[in-house]
Every structure is written in structure tokens, then in C-alpha cells.
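We were asked to recover a plausible sequence for a given structure. The inputs and outputs are reproduced exactly as logged, with field labels preserved.

PROBLEM: sequence recovery
POSITIONS: 356
GIVEN STRUCTURE:
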């Protein structure tokens, strides 16, 4: 039930608001628009609506969605499978991508990028023909890759050589190599000419200026142990960091401060932010998917969750249908003799979450 009180200015600790105050299940929350609070009360309710089988090993690494062309790209160790996003049927395989790890798409240029960790290269894809266009040399053990729209370049994280290979999308040539002080563990772009890269040890974020192609700032993450997954609430300019000490740290990139720490499950390996800017999605290694909603400038909270009984490896969100695609390995249920969840061999699967 929703109870309403008189309009007043009240300091709620987390933030100050001038609005009607709402109470949900006897727990207060801060909102800037009362109508938004009514619409979002209780948070998004998702469930597994479809399972897409994928053959092969358990070390698939990434997913990427081409919303307009309704395609799903799946990194599969030595090849990339391209699936029909709506039916899950297999369209084509792109071969010769040894230890493929990350995939990033630049639809405006009909180009895609896939990192080949074993070959120290990146494959450039033609998104129209769904074939290899060319290959560029990277640093050692390339992993994550992102496309950055301001500079029109792809940024490839080289884990072993602690660097970034920058590729011009229009020419498919290497523009620069940016050295990093430590191994990159995750990366997100803000749409304003910056990359935010996790440095696990020491716990920091390296901020890259995508036009100057250099580190502009390093943000220490005090209280965040070994940051792994990272995502961003662009609308409210907040980074969300998954930390090994079972928290999601909310970071103001402007001040560099951690403004909130949210308790989450163990080993959150993947995070995404809903394209409509409504909530972050965090999936851990023991089968929990949490939805973290922005309430006011420096306050986020988990508003709902779903159990998927699988270890999440990668995630992508379809902005057209609001469906969430999670690449995962199925977990063997716990027993009296085994109190720890383990991964079922050869159980890679794509779980599709939809709204109830």
C-alpha cells in the first residue's frame, strides 16, 4: 500500500527532496518525481522465458546484440556464432578467431571487432556480409573491446601487455597504443569521450580521454577489493563497480568519490545498464541476477532479483524488447556432501530474461 504525507522539505540523509513522500512496505525511498515512484514501485520483475542451447565448451566469453538487424553475436572460443535474436536459430559461423574473447559493434560503419586472445590480434567483421573483413595486430592477450562513438574508434584491452590498442573504425588501422599501469579488467564508455577501465591491483579506475588517447585521471577505489565488472548510469553520471568483497560501489567520476556501497552476492562477474537508463543488472557466479535502481543522486538500491541457477559469463540487453540475454554455465545443485555450487560440464547456455 502507498501512503501519502503533506508536501515538505525533508533531509533524508541520502538526498534532499521537495516532493510527496512515498513509503513502500514500510521502507522509505527518495524520489524526484512521485509519478515515477508509483510506476517503478517494487522494481522490474523478470523471469527466464527462453533457453538457447549452444554447443561446445564452457569458456564462451561474450555476447553482443545488433538490435536493428536482430542479430546476436556469441564468442565461442575459436569462432563467432551469429544467431537470430528473436528465434535463437543459427545464422552463420565466423571462423578463425582463436581464443575469441570480446565483441564490440559499430553499426553505423557496418563494422564489428572481436579480440583473439591466443593470436594477439583482433578480427574486423563486416556486419552486412557477416564475414571477416580484416585482421589487426594488438598487444598480448587482448580481452575486452569497446566502440567509442565520439572518437569513432575501437579500444582493445590487452591484458598481458597492460595496454590498449586503438583502431580507427573508418580505416581499420591502428591509431595508437596506450600503456596502462596494470592489467585491465573491465571497461565502459560514457558517450562523452571517456573510457573507464578497472585496474584490479591496486583497486583503481583509469580514465582515458578518447581524443587525446591518454590517461587523464586515476580514481582510487577505497573499500572496493579487486574490481571486476563495471557499468555506467550515463543519465546520472555514476559508475557502478562490482567488487570482490561482495559490494557494488557507486562512483561519482567527477569527484572520484565512492558515494554508496550496495551489498550484493558473491563474485559478480558481469554487469550491464538497461539502455533506457532505468536500472543496472548484476549477475553473480552462484545464480543470482540483481536489479539495482537509481533513487536519487547518490542513492541506488536493489529493487528485485531473479534466480537463474547458472553462473553468468556475459550479458547483453535488447533495447527493442527489454529482454536480457545471459551467457551462462548451468550449476550443479548443492547437496549434503557438497555445500558449494559447481559448474555442470559442457552446459553453456543462453538464458533470455523477459518481464512477467
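RECOVERED SEQUENCE:
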Amino acid at each position: 500500500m502507498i501512503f501519502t504525507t503533506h508536501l515538505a522539505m525533508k533531509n533524508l540523509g541520502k538526498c534532499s527532496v521537495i516532493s510527496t513522500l512515498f513509503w513502500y512496505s514500510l521502507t522509505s525511498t527518495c524520489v524526484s518525481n512521485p509519478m515515477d515512484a508509483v510506476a517503478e514501485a517494487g522494481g522490474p520483475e523478470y523471469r527466464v522465458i527462453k533457453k538457447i542451447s549452444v554447443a561446445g565448451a564452457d569458456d564462451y566469453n561474450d555476447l553482443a546484440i545488433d538490435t536493428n538487424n536482430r542479430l546476436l553475436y556469441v564468442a565461442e572460443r575459436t569462432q563467432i556464432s551469429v544467431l537470430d535474436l528473436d528465434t535463437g536459430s543459427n545464422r552463420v559461423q565466423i571462423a578463425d578467431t582463436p581464443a575469441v574473447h570480446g565483441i564490440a559493434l559499430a553499426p553505423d560503419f557496418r563494422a564489428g571487432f572481436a579480440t583473439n586472445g591466443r593470436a594477439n590480434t583482433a578480427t574486423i567483421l563486416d556486419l552486412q556480409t557477416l564475414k571477416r573483413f580484416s585482421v589487426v595486430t594488438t598487444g598480448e592477450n587482448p580481452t575486452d573491446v569497446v566502440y567509442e562513438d565520439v572518437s569513432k574508434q575501437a579500444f582493445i584491452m590487452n591484458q598481458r601487455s597492460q595496454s590498449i590498442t586503438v583502431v580507427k573504425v573508418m580505416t581499420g588501422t591502428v591509431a595508437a597504443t596506450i600503456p596502462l599501469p596494470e592489467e585491465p579488467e573491465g571497461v565502459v564508455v560514457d558517450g562523452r569521450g571517456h573510457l573507464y577501465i578497472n585496474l584490479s591491483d591496486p583497486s583503481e579506475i583509469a580514465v582515458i580521454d578518447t581524443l587525446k588517447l591518454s590517461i587523464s585521471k586515476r580514481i582510487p577505489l577505497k573499500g572496493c577489493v579487486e574490481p571486476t565488472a563495471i557499468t555506467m548510469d550515463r543519465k546520472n553520471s555514476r559508475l557502478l563497480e562490482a567488487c570482490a568483497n561482495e559490494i557494488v560501489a557507486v562512483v561519482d567520476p567527477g569527484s572520484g568519490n565512492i558515494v554508496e556501497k550496495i551489498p550484493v552476492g558473491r563474485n559478480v562477474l558481469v554487469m550491464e545498464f538497461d539502455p533506457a537508463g532505468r536500472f543496472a543488472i548484476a549477475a553473480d557466479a552462484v545464480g543470482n541476477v540483481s536489479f539495482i535502481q537509481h533513487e536519487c543522486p547518490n542513492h541506488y538500491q536493489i529493487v528485485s532479483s531473479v534466480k537463474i541457477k547458472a553462473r553468468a559469463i556475459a550479458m547483453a540487453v535488447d533495447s527493442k524488447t527489454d529482454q536480457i540475454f545471459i551467457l551462462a554455465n548451468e550449476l550443479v545443485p548443492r547437496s549434503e556432501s557438497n555445500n558449494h555450487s559447481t559448474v555442470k560440464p559442457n552446459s553453456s547456455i543462453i538464458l533470455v530474461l523477459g518481464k512477467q
